[in-house]
Amino acid sequence: MNAIILSALLGVVMMFASVFTENKIAIRNIAIFGLLILLASNLLNIYTPYSFNVDLHNMLRFDSFGLFFNSIAIVSTLLYVILSGSDIVKVGNYPAEYFALIFFVLCGVTILSSYNSLLMLFLGVEIMSIPLYILTGSDKKNLKSNEASLKYFLMGAFSTGIMLMGIALLYGASGNFNLEMIREKTSIAEFGILAPLGLLLIFISLAFKVSAAPFHFWTPDVYDGAPSVFTSFMATIVKTAGFIAFVKLFSLRMADLGPSYAIILPVIIIATLLVGNITAVFQQSVKRMLAYSSIAQAGFMLFALYTSNDLSTEGILLYAAAYSIATIGIFGILIKMKDYTFDGYNGLAKKQPLVAATNTVFLLSLAGIPLTAGFFAKYYMLASALKSNGSALWLVIVAVLFAAVSVYYYFRVIQAMYFKDGDAETTEIDGTFKFVLVVLALLIILIGINPSILLRWYYF
Amino acid sequence: MPIQYYIILSLALFCIGIVGVLVRRNVIIVFMCIELMLNAVNLLLVAFSKMHHGIAYLTDKTTTTGSDAQLFVFFIMVVAAAEVSVGLAIIVMMYRNTHSVDVNFLNRLKN
After folding, report:
1. Which one of B10, B87, B97 has the shortest CB-CB distance to A146?
2. How many C-alpha atoms does A94 have within 13 Å on its Cβ side?
3. Which of B15, B35, B76 to mutate to test the interface with A (most CBs of A within 10 A)?
4. Arithmetic mean of pLDDT, A121-138
5. Which residues of chain B are within 8 Å of residue A148 when distances are taken between CB atoms?
6. Among candidates A244, A335, A346, A330, which has minimal Cα distance to A294?
């Protein structure tokens, strides 16, 4: 509750900050300070559940899963703002407003991690999406940014319409918006086709949001067209929040209701892995490669839907953290590059050894090499699939094969940095940036050596 | 009136909206089709609300069953209004740069 209220308030504070100061550094520091307060208040929420005594009519529920994910999202945003804050203020003429929009997105994220009613699911998705449409189009003179923004908006509004239809049909079948009540009512009586159809429509709309194939087609264009700093935010915090909403919806075993999800989900998982990995191999631009790689990573996160057990709950949280940290780092470096193609990275290791070394750690983590956080994230996902259902072995084998494919395009960047001669041009890189990169890399290695240092907070 | 009529009407409106989004090339019309989808949902929610209220009313004369769907409709309207304001702003921004509101402009990113 604290995080929801405070993030909305902090958004308003940021908007007022632009009235009082023009200083970009000051605005960035206000945002960092605000995020620290947000993190503190969210942690406070874990220990003292009743800091805001509001009658929620059971529409929101704050369990350790949601609160822990909030912490991950807020810490990721904090690292993102410290790392790329100086690039956020350079996008356009309204630096404070960008931070305000980021806070509003966080408000949506915190609602999505704790919704217990379909009304809150809808509001959370919208509060998260609408500021993002603006952030995508924030480079107003750039035609690519405009196009990405319009495309994202049309796709987002379209999928919202589908989700609402699903909610309406589910309401028709059960007479309630509350998740548990829906489950109870629909399991008692026979409601014909309404409930499965409604669930299917909500499923499709959430698949749009997390860019699972075959609903992924907007992702590469939008991620490519948006200003790189905001792509970083979209691909990490927002995407993982979409997955948390997805997992919450299906953790109640709502899947039992619908048309055979046991068939639909593996098909979607394999399609997502296939499209993401294979298309990423053929990309020339690192930014576009990362867009496809985010689709591929979504394929792994979908395993958490396929299997709803404790291992997959831990796994999705671990995945959210590992994937967010690594991607924020890679995008942070990408923003500093003058040339976004693979050739633009040629010889980076000679010019900026530290940056190249940390970038290697991030890429290894995304590829899932042992001793990095990404390895355990993938391991938990696949292990949960095997634990819940022995016949899922073929699906796990396919996923591992695709993980091997992904090594190719991640290592292409490493190869360009270390083994090719060239003059990788970067914009100015300061000490803070390098320091945060090292912190991110250390976090990845620490979680990679022992994931329980992250997960024990979940049970705290 | 039986609930089936409302369901069929809403689904028909919804499908007209979906087809419009997929077929039409003018961004403003696409936009209107999305609004049509949302309003089809509003209609359906109100119909279901009355239906569930009617069922509950038979046993309990003081029931408030169904009021949550009526509230949901207001939330949809508010969110749709917010979405429209952002969407129109994006369309105006694009019009300034391209002097067109045609969806076919959306293919520059496809390399």
Report:
1. B97
2. 15
3. B76
4. 95
5. 109
6. A330
Domain boundaries, chain A: 258-460
Q: What one-character-per-residue DSSP string does A327-378 give?
A: HHHHHHHHHHBS--BGGGGTTHHHH-HHHHHHHHHHHHHHHT-TTSHHHHHH
Identify the pLDDT of residue A460.
Answer: 64
Flag whether residue A33 sits within 8 Å of chain B, measured between CB atoms: no
Domains in chain B and their CATH numbers? 3-99 (1.10.287.3510)
Give the Å distances, CA to CA, from A137 to A97, A131, A189, A227, B64.
13, 10, 47, 8, 44
pLDDT of residue A122: 96
pTM, full prediction: 0.94
How many beta-carbon pairs below 8 A join chains A and B? 117
Q: Is the ipTM of this complex over 0.85?
A: yes
Name which of B34, B97, B109 is nearest A157 (Cβ-Cβ): B34
Task: Give per-residue pLDDT as tens, B55-74.
Answer: 889 998 888 888 899 999 99
Q: Which of A27-41, A151-165, A384-398 has the lowest mean pLDDT?
A: A384-398
Rg (CA), chain B: 19
Q: Is B9 on the interface with A (CB under 8 A)?
A: no
The C-alpha atoms of residue A349 and residue A419 are separated, in whole angstroms, by 9
What is the enclosing helix (H) or strand (E) of A223? helix A218-225
- What is the pLDDT at residue A423? 83
* Of B48, B79, B93, Cβ closest to residue A171: B48
Are A172 and B93 inside 8 Å of each other by CB?
A: no
Measured CA angle at A241 (ends A240, A242), to 5 deg: 90
